Q: What sequence folds into this?
């Protein structure tokens, strides 16, 4: 995208704001900086304000011209540093960013915390499923994509003139830092460009992001090892082996026992604390502890923060909730401050030296050619076509945030000089700005295959689906047969997508003989419901068809809600804790007159999210789906109706139940053209329901019935061969639980089981 006159008018306020932001900052800093030898709180605040305003303004400009915002934030630091602001107004720049070590330490502390939070957020955005789906190709692309440019960068470091390297025996460490900086792609930049091009769900887009994820992970491990070497000042083989062993044990523990511990800690915090945002505190504690562990192992704390982010992102609950709360502060404060401060440390005036300018150009050329060659070679070894390998090479050539973090660490520990640091920052900016147009050009040349189109259609359907987008379910059940049946059905729904389930017992537990054990054994109702959920979840997972690259859902985690207060209080608290589906299964759901009981009404009214309500049959068959059962599905084209169709399809898959979708329309009284339009809409609706059944591998029989009384055809179909009616409804305002006239009529007239899905 070019910066046109129209865009310029739009961007002018941002540029003006960036310029004006310098005035109060400099004045405040000048007032407080009369004694520069003493640290000033006003100077510190002025620094933060200026870095945020200028960084966000230039980041906005970059995004509007098709570049990542991080480029603008780096340029903001360069403009505010010695390269521009310091060259034009040296006294003002010295006042705003004094060389006093204590004053700089205040800003550095924010920057260091920003690094940890940035790596935490990057880890949370890391989708390990992409790596599992493209294992072979992603392995080769990341392996050669790191090895080739790393070798080039290391060789470059060994050939650099000694006058631009740190004094002492640091060349090998400097060369290792250069190799790392030239070899890693920035997963944040890569993912942003691929997502902006609407290529994230394409096969190659997922491969590019998966490879960048592996490279980022490998890069932090390499950096951790380099820091261990740097601490000893030379390549100590014994120390290196200890570092590698420590990192290996840390990673092994993190992705096994640690992953479960993190999930349990997040869930316990969310479900136990009543104060605001307890999960954010829990995540920051996890990040801090893991960062301390890696620091203790002799590697940098950033590795711990990154792995902590991955574990938090893999947690099956509250991911959207957490992302919204945490991302805002990181993006608004820590990113512009960290990258702005990194830009401040770069002095582009050194490029006035012909020698350093040539070396910088060599940096950029070696980084680009090395990365492109490595990724292209990996694509060829991974079985990709030439066009796909070219696109890979273009996509992996983005450095950006990762390289700046690596260079900043190297500079802070003395492994890099300010001159080499400036060269790396320049290389990062240039390669990052080169990548988007190159990748757009390469991806536009790749046609959509038929298999890819079919997969994209399935995923598009899942994005609009109901169950796949739920994160947590709570079931309110008693000790009845209907309660256990509700637990089984809830397990089927949860197992389809690995959704965690919490059981809320709304009656005191009493010992009940198990249905499948010997007479001398007993289980508590808590255990019986847990068995029913696990049984349903297992059947649901086993019924998912095997597909190439498909990943089975994670295991369903089950917890028990402590019995504190009334059932209504438990449900109200569940809604506040982030549960988005309440499944109700109790014995007395409807009274003798066919209305909902007061207990069901209280539970439903206490929950603001979606509700699944299993009404048992009057003959106590209670909705337990046997093999080959029949589900009657009334549909009317509304969103609740489509949600019910999705639930029916998921329930029928493990039980091989037949689904009869019935659309009840009013008798035709309009003209011929109006009737044709109406019938086309009805047929289109039923075709959509049939496609939804195909998505889950089940057959849906469809029919249209015309009747002024909507429930009459439904009752007729259910009486013919119906074991369960699954119906989507909307809760209506008023006294009591009212789900509409048709639902009320079915509740009174149909003696069998009904599963209502209420939005």
A:
């Amino acid at each position: 995208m070019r910066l046109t006159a129209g865009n310029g008018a739009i961007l002018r306020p941002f540029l003006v704001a960036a310029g004006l932001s310098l005035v109060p900052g400099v004045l405040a800093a000048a007032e407080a900086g009369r004694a520069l030898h003493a640290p000033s709180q006003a100077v510190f605040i002025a620094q933060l304000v200026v870095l945020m305003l200028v960084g966000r303004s230039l980041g906005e400009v970059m995004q509007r011209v098709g570049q990542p915002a991080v480029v603008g934030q780096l340029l903001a630091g360069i403009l505010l540093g010695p390269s521009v602001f310091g060259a034009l107004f040296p006294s003002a720049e010295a006042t705003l960013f004094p060389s006093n070590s204590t004053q700089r330490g205040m800003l550095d502390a924010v920057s260091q915390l920003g690094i940890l939070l940035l790596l935490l957020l990057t880890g949370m955005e890391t989708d390990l499923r992409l790596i599992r789906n493209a294992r072979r190709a992603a392995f080769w692309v990341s392996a050669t994509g790191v090895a080739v440019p790393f070798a080039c960068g290391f060789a470059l470091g060994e050939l650099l003139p000694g006058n631009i390297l740190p004094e002492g025996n640091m060349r090998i460490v400097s060369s290792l830092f250069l190799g790392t900086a030239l070899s890693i792609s920035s997963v944040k930049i890569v993912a942003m460009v691929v997502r902006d091009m609407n290529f994230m769900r394409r096969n190659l887009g997922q491969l590019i992001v998966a490879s960048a994820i592996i490279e980022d992970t490998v890069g932090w491990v390499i950096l951790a090892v380099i820091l261990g070497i740097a601490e000893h000042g030379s390549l100590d083989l014994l120390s290196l082996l200890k570092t590698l062993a420590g990192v290996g044990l840390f990673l092994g523990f993190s992705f096994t026992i640690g992953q479960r511990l993190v999930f349990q800690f997040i869930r316990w915090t969310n479900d136990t604390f009543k104060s605001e945002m307890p999960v954010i505190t829990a995540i920051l504690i996890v990040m801090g502890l893991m960062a301390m562990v890696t620091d203790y192992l002799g590697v940098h704390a950033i590795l711990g923060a990154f792995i902590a982010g991955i574990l938090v992102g893999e947690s099956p609950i509250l991911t959207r909730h957490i992302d919204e709360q945490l991302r805002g502060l990181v993006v608004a404060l820590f990113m512009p401050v960290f990258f702005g401060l990194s830009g401040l440390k770069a002095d582009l005036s050194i490029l006035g030296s012909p020698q350093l300018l040539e070396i910088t150009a060599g940096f950029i050329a070696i980084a680009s050619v090395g990365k492109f060659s490595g990724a292209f070679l990996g694509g060829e070894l991974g079985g990709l076509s030439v066009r796909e390998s070219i696109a890979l090479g273009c996509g992996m050539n983005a450095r950006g945030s990762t390289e700046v973090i690596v260079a900043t660490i190297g500079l802070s520990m003395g492994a890099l000089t300010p001159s080499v640091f400036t060269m790396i920052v320049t290389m990062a900016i240039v390669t990052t700005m080169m990548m988007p147009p190159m990748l757009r050009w390469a991806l536009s040349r790749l046609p959509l295959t038929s298999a890819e189109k079919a997969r994209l259609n399935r995923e598009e359907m899942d994005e609009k689906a109901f169950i796949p987008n739920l994160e947590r379910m709570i079931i309110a059940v008693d000790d009845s047969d209907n309660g256990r049946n509700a637990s089984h059905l809830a397990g089927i729904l949860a197992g389809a997508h690995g959704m965690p389930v919490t059981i809320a017992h709304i009656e005191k537990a009493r010992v009940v003989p198990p249905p499948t054990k010997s007479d001398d054994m007993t289980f508590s109702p808590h255990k019986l419901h847990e068995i029913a959920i696990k049984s349903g979840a297992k059947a649901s997972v086993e019924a998912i068809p095997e597909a190439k690259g498909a990943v089975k859902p994670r295991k369903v985690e089950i917890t028990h809600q402590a019995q504190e207060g009334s059932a209504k209080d438990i449900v109200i608290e569940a809604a506040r804790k982030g549960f988005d589906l309440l499944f109700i299964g109790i014995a007395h759901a409807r009274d003798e007159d066919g209305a909902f009981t007061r207990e069901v009404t209280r539970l439903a009214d206490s929950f603001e999210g979606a509700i699944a309500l299993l009404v048992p049959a009057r003959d106590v068959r209670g909705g337990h789906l046997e093999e080959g059962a029949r589900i009657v599905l009334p549909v009317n084209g509304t969103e609740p109706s489509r949600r019910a169709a999705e639930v029916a399809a998921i329930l029928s898959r493990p039980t091989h139940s037949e689904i009869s979708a019935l659309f009840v329309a009013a008798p035709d009284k309009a003209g011929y053209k109006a009737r044709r339009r109406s019938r086309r809409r009805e047929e289109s609706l039923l075709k959509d329901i049939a496609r939804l059944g195909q998505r889950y591998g089940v057959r849906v029989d469809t029919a249209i019935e015309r009747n002024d009384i909507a429930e009459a055809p439904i009752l007729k179909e259910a009486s013919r061969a119906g074991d369960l009616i699954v119906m989507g409804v909307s809760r209506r305002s008023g006294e009591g639980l009212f789900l509409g006239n048709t639902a009320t009529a079915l509740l009174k007239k149909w003696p069998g089981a009904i599963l209502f899905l209420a939005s």
User: Anything to note?
Assistant: The mean pLDDT is 79. Strands lie at 473-477, 501-505, 558-560, 581-585, 610-615, 630-635, 658-665, 700-706, 724-729, 753-758.
